[in-house]
Design brief:
Shape: elongated
Largest sheet: 4 strands, mixed
Radius of gyration: 22 Å
Strand content: 25-35%
Structural class: alpha+beta
Number of strands: 13
Oligomer: single chain
Strand order of the largest sheet: 1-13-12-9
Helix content: 25-40%
Order of helices and strands: EHHHEEEEHEHEEHHEEEEHHE
Distance between the termini: 10 Å
């Protein structure tokens, strides 16, 4: 018995603390308290951020955590934890808001707004790109303006834009994806633990599985989508977009295909009603094994 079933939980309602933070955003000033009024994106005003003595290079803590991950001495949790106090750059680009026709019948920009850049992940989800250095952003999109913010503020912006993923340094040597639970943790300024190492989550999912006698035990492992690939072709044991969690179900022998399908559907429905599961699991794949294995 060996089959896989992949899927991502349906979109979930934002936790109250994140919704409250979003409600307080979008005021007359930026996150540093500087008024938006009277600002432009030309000349010295192109230096949008207010991080004193910021040379635009990547945060040393993040670089160290990423290098440890690549070397096998660190983990995803440490990389996300390093972002808690890190400055990142969000790309802003001009977006045509109004167009007019000239006396010669040509179309010209009359008014342009500045907008956040969002991406579409391979699974269709919205992702917000962020860059650990100004050089990385400029290489990715030379026309984009860098707005420097703390990564927690970038995570909150991702939530506001309906993005479930925060993609760090797309197009760079290593691109690291922070998945939805990690994005929410950053936005809340709390620690994040990968679902595949979460003992509390494993207990909750195991208790739910206990209501299905054919399930002898379950095991939580990293999903096939956890690793990522660096530009040089090497594998990085983290930073992938998902599926993030592999749930191995050890089942009693003798179940036919219909019984297995009904069992898996029932388990997924049971898990989806669990608040802890909803907050801590981004996407799953289910693997079936005989209990004797």
């Amino acid at each position: 018995m060996a089959s896989d079933d992949e899927g991502a939980p349906a979109a979930r309602q934002l936790p109250g603390h994140i919704a409250a933070a979003l409600a307080g955003a979008g005021g007359a000033t930026d996150s540093a308290g500087r008024p938006w009024a009277g600002r432009s994106l030309a000349g010295d005003d192109a230096k949008i951020h207010n991080f004193e003595d910021d040379d635009g290079t990547a945060n040393a803590g993040y670089l160290a955590a990423l290098e440890a991950l690549r070397a096998g001495t660190g983990d995803e949790a440490a990389v996300v934890a390093s972002l808690a106090t890190a400055r990142v750059f969000i790309p802003i680009v001009a977006q045509l808001a109004e167009e007019e026709e000239t006396v010669h019948g040509l179309h010209a920009d009359k008014q342009a707004d500045m907008a956040l850049v969002t991406l579409k992940a391979a699974d269709g989800r919205t992702a917000l790109p962020a860059f650990t250095s100004a050089a990385a952003l400029s290489h990715w999109h030379p026309e984009a303006r860098p707005v420097a913010v703390y990564a927690a503020r970038a995570a909150l912006s991702a939530v506001a834009e309906g993005a479930e993923l925060l993609v760090l340094d797309p197009g760079a040597e290593v691109t690291f994806v922070v998945r939805r639970p990690g994005v929410w943790a950053l936005a809340r300024q709390r620690d994040w633990m990968p679902s595949y190492t979460d003992g509390e989550l494993a207990g909750e999912m195991g208790r739910a599985a206990g209501g299905f006698p054919a399930v002898r035990r379950i095991e939580l492992l990293p999903g096939r989508g956890v690793p990522s690939r660096a530009a040089d072709g090497s594998t990085v044991p983290g930073g992938g977009a998902g599926p993030e969690l592999q749930v191995v179900l050890y089942l009693e022998d003798g179940l036919d295909a219909a019984a297995v399908q009904q069992l898996v559907a029932g388990l997924q429905e049971e898990w989806s009603r669990n608040v802890l599961f909803g907050e801590r699991v981004d996407s799953i794949e289910i693997t079936l094994r005989r209990a004797s294995q």
